Amino acid sequence: MDTSTAFGLSDIDAVGQAALAAAGEVSAAELLEAAIVRLEAGRVLNAVVADLFDRGRAQAAALDDTGVLRTGRAGPLAGVPLLLKDLGASLAGAPEAMGSRALRRHVASETAWIVERYLEAGLVIFGKTNTPEWGNHCTTEPSLFGPTVNPWSPEITPGGSSGGSAAAVAAGIVPAASGGDGTGSIRVPAACCGLVGLKPRRARTSFGPSAGHGLEGLVNEHALTRTVRDSAALLDAVTGVGVGDPYSAPLPAQPFLQGIAETPAAQRIMIATSSPFPGPATDTAVAAAVERTGAVLQELGHAVEPGVPMIDADAVAEAIAVLHTVSNAQLFELACQVLGREPDEDEFEPSTWEMVREGLTTTGTEYAAAIATVHSQTRRFAAGMTSSDVLLVPTLLSTPPPFGLLDQPRGSTRAFFDVEFATTGWTSLANVTGWAAISLPLGVTSDGLPIGVQLMAPDEAILLKLAAQLETALPWADRRPPGWVSG
Predict the structure, then answer these.
(1) Which domains does the chain have, with CATH numbers?
(2) For a Cys staple, 165 with which of 26, 112, 177, 320, CB 3.0–4.6 Å?
(3) Active site residue 465
């Protein structure tokens, strides 16, 4: 495949690339080699921290040799190259540093079930993307690998913790890459990089075989994409309970990809532009993008009314801080096992070490109280939304922030999250409540940077349908960042 064709494929989304492969116009091997050409051209972004080219080539060759792509049985994504976030989406035998110097030599011993489902869908895995240490930060600038560059501007963060995945998709290296979201780690990078970022509802996908959930239910895994249909198709590929999972979400009434072709019924949409947490006022450009989205949704036949869901922001922030300290303590124990000794303080970033120290002294009573707070605040939030179907809010309260803001120690884990929530605002409430939430690139700043607008609902189906409506009404597909890969 010549270089011009390799770069030309970057304009085609995952569903489109799979359709080309199914029609015999391109092979899985050719799609992969084109993605590798684009990855090499985009090395300056530092989005990919582990190359898995040989395993990807072997997988693509097997798909081509068996002829499965031409049968149509492999599904709407077969043959498409995919990058995995180097946190959560483990692949047996592949490096898994999780952005941590303490785990710099760690290799995954098992493959996550969600990754097995990607492979069963015929997605070709060929690399792992950069992430902050243990996913602690809503920015991607780990000391182990260095910062990932946002294709829109080297001055702003690509977001985190799925920042490497977001940069790779935003630059056109791949049409989709995996992500995980504990307080906004899919949606924040989507907002910073001008992408579609869906956090599924709680228990939509499995955390097996290693876990039943992440951060007591705060974490959900999915992907960063440029189109709504790619997000829907990827969710179809991984939806469903695994054997022995502790709980599950109800199966969707129809495939998500099929559902977005339908016009949704009129929804009752609550709109809010101010933050539920203390801090600076929402940036005027961000608020304007949310209000414009509300106006468009009203024109599309939905009822949009201002409101504020009920939530105790202080209790939520405290609970999230406690859960993160315990999670960091657990990962500290993993580092001890991997290294065969207790890690030194200088093998961690300062903010991580702060969380580890607190986690090792957090009491069982404090941990249990944090879990109880999450549950009680979920009930309070849901009670305040009974007269609405969907919540429309900013993804970030500001325009994409600079590096060096969201990864610094603040003296305590709670103070760390107070700073984070002053920027991210609403994102963590979807994690606490288990609601689905999607960030869409529906605004642009005066200097051309993306602005994300967020929709939340109990289930993904309505969010994807609304997102498809907005993608048609306010299209973003023709926007290309200065860092878009080209020959």
Answers:
(1) 3-473 (3.90.1300.10)
(2) 177
(3) no
